[in-house]
Amino acid sequence: MELNSARPSRRSRRARHLLAVSLAAALLPLAPAPASAAAAPDTRAATADSCPWGYTSSATVFFGRNRADSGVPNRDLGNGCTIMDAIWAEAPFLDHGSFVRAVSRVATGLRKDGVVTGKESRSIVRAAARSPIGTPQPATGTRALPDERIGLVLYTVRATMPSAPEATLAALASCGYRNAEPSGAVDNFYGRTATALAPVVTDAGLSVPSIGIGLGDLQNNIDGVIANARAFGARYVRISGSGSWGLDDYSEVAATLNAVGARLKQAGITVAYHNHGFEFTARDGVRGYDVLLRETDPNLVAMELDLYWAASVGVDPVELISQHPGRFPLFHVKDMAADGSFADVGEGTIDFARIFAYSRMAGVEYYLTENDSPRPDGVSSACDSYANLRALRY
After folding, report:
1. Confidence (pLDDT) at 49
2. Could you read off the pLDDT of 102-125 as tens digits, one per residue?
3. One domain, residues 218 and 177
4. Does residue 54 sit within a domain?
5. Predicted confidence band at 52 (pLDDT cuts at 50, 70, 90)?
6. Could you tell me if residue 13 is inside a domain?
7. Which of residues 101, 130, 159 is at a domain's end?
């Protein structure tokens, strides 16, 4: 599924940077100034950008949520590369110990070069030690998903939502669902406004942890986005991208997500990006999805990982999670038939148990089932997926 996605215009990197700064200033007039550097500000001019699609310097040195976030600014090293770029240049890591040792070597070198203080160097190493990176997460076959964390992407029942939302939502609740993710645009969810549809969802006994909107909504109507999310009680708003984007477009979208993400965070909402398969097509050796992960601030921007679309292009979700722990609070749980088409969850080829074993590392909060081509109808397909997901052990 692809939501209304406005294709960003192409500009020079400097123009995009100025646009992002201006947007952030407009959205955040009262935002605090960014953390200062270790000592005097680094005024070295970068003559060459050695990491043009690397980790953003607007974030922190981050290895996961909470105690795995060092809090140390991810500083530019003077050549377009940042601290996180220097650390991941040491990859692959054989295990957690080798990861921590690599981080320690980089942090020690940065301290000697005056990029970080001794205290910051220790904070980086402690965060690495607390991170799950490099730690295997085996599937034991003894765990079940929490029922209150399972939901449905309402795209599955899009055929009946416009004409019979009450009956559709009631049927979903009756087969066990507790959460739903509606998608559309500001004040247009299956032909209804958010304030009109929200009580219908509530009356059915469902909660809405996230809503899907278009990139244009974020760019042009942030107040409407916030109002709609609050009407539903949603903590996440997510967008999808476009198969026509190039790397410059992904970089520009990342800057936009950082800016609007800061504004949304003030409202208690997190912006998320939902993938299809095209984000994983490499251009000049770089994937658009990597640009989004590296250039968005993990404290402001989340990822809604669609497991079907990742698998459809040969991407292993476990590898994504292992390198970017804590970035994936939302899963779209979709299965793939042997011929590559859509299948109800649990009736296809995707090894969900192996992926779910990494749930804690990923930071997953909600598992939202979906079938883009449900048979024989949306409700029957959705209830089938729910029953199979509840029976799954990982």
Report:
1. 79
2. 999 999 999 999 999 999 999 999
3. yes
4. yes
5. confident
6. no
7. 130
- Domain of residue 83: give its range: 38-130
Q: pTM of the predicted model, to two decimals?
A: 0.88
The answer on 114 and 228 residing in a single domain is no
Q: Which residue has the tokens 């003559």?
A: 47
Q: How many domains does the chain divide into?
A: 2
Residue 9: predicted pLDDT: 42
Domain-located, residue 80: yes
262: Cα within 13 Å, side-chain hemisphere:
23
102 and 189 inside one domain: no
Q: Average pLDDT of the chain? A: 90
